[in-house]
Amino acid sequence: xxxxxxxxxxxxxxxxxxxxxxxxxxxxxxxxxxxxxxxxxxxxxxxxxxxxxxxxxxxxxxxxxxxxxxxxxxxxxxxxxxxxxxxxxxxxxxxxxxxxxxxxxxxxxxxxxxxxxxxxxxxxxxxxxxxxxxxxxxxxxxxxxxxxxxxxxxxxxxxxxxxxxxxxxxxxxxxxxxxxxxxxxxxxxxxxxxxxxxxxxxxxxxxxxxxxxxxxxxxxxxxxxxxxxxxxxxxxxxxxxxxxxxxxxxxxxxxxxxxxxxxxxxxxxxxxxxxxxxxxxxxxxxxxxxxxxxxxxxxxxx
Length: 302
Description:
This protein is α/β, with parallel strands linked by helices. The protein has one domain: Alpha-Beta Barrel (TIM Barrel), CATH 3.20.20. It contains nine helices and ten strands. The chain is globular, with a radius of gyration of 19 Å.
């Protein structure tokens, strides 16, 4: 359920605007703790960007993760929404890496992928984001694991890192269901081989539950982690079924994950990547993240 226009105006008046003028693109203070962010796809598309940003701010989120926007006018509208609401755009999710993988053996496909990533990097620079999420490769019948490794590293090193350096934006590679980077040791090695401050890890807590434990991955990746996605996952091994869940409703040991992040010294943004919902749903989700940050189970209400 999405809020009506009238409901939105009420939320805005009671929440975001009641605090007075907000600083544009507010940044966390040095040494600040973990901060809550929401993925743009979780907010109602029936609202304008300013309205969506204000809704997230009123729900208790500090920042937002955008997706690639090629249209200049739309990108400018998004920047204005961030300035108006004070909701920081902290990262950008690149959108063309699945359809056009960097690891493809086809030059035209790689060119499309590079162009999409360049757009994402320029979006990040415009919006004040410090990182762009990248799925670095896809292993399939036409691309072996070894080829995915070498091809993607070559393209990132030769064609993307120079752009990232010039814009002072980090390329954050994420582990996803792409049959690639299937262990934390491989993920760490992949990042380390670039030997670049502009290439880091974007760690998704839920994506590894099929074949590992997120707290173990965090301990191995350590300071390589620059961004974190939060979602829960439930696996019925007896029936071979699985489902994505809201925080605290799946199989993840959230207190162990929180301890692992503390051990790794992670103090960045935690971006929720779960189902979309209305204002009350978003407020509840923000409270779940607050409990997680405090070292509690997301559903604990003590």
